[in-house]
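Take a look at the protein record below and flag anything odd:
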Amino acid sequence: MGLYQNRIVIKIGTSTLTNNIGQNNPDFFNQLAYVLSDIKNLGYEIILVSSGATAIGASKLRMNIPPTDLRLKQAAAAVGQCKIMYLYDKFFSRYDKIIAQILLNSEDIENNEKKENLINTFESLIEMGVIPIVNENDSVSYTEIESKEKLFSDNDMLSAIVSILCKAKKLIILSDINGFYNSDPRLHPNAKLIKSVSTIDDKILSLAGGTGSRRGTGGMKAKLKAAKLATEQGIDTIIANGKNISFLHNIIKGEDIGTIFLGNKV
């Protein structure tokens, strides 16, 4: 079976879900729920990969600085997951949508039996009209927080893996930047946005900078690696700015927003 043409995975990052001091942004959660609900009403199947648990949990626990100790990261993630899902449930319910939480670690992908059960869960939820909301299970999985040999490495890669598992035709990675540039626009004001990429080769990868924002973990290099994995399976991947969430409507219509990495023919 090929890719589902109306199935979309959307990844939202920590820096988009939180404000400059790491607190959750309820207005943005509401806007996100409204736009995704509207897109779903148009006949699309939506899967949301959401970051933000550790940052939001740390804020709720009144940690003055982001935690660096493993046990504190896991504690913050556990608290943050509750807060995030409360917000998603509150606002998606406002638009008559049901959500479900799926927390993953590497074993869920590497073990064939667990992987098959996971795929069946996704399919069952989608068939029932539910919007799955996915995150790494940071509260129990130390490998995804600390290990240098991570399967996911960050939620950008997780979103690519989810796209492949669910056979989505489109992956949209929402960031705090407008797309993929020929140099870092935060450092180089004359950097130019690259609208379309047909092949993610070494030359393209060399244009990526380092890590992401202070509150997020994934930089452009991580997003390119995720895009490369997804496009190799035929999945069109778009990197765009998530701060103006209404742009999702334009992306769905095929308009020229952000950077599109074209899926390979498979």
The chain has eleven helices and ten strands. Confidence is low (pLDDT under 50) at residues 142-149, 210-218. The radius of gyration is 17 Å.
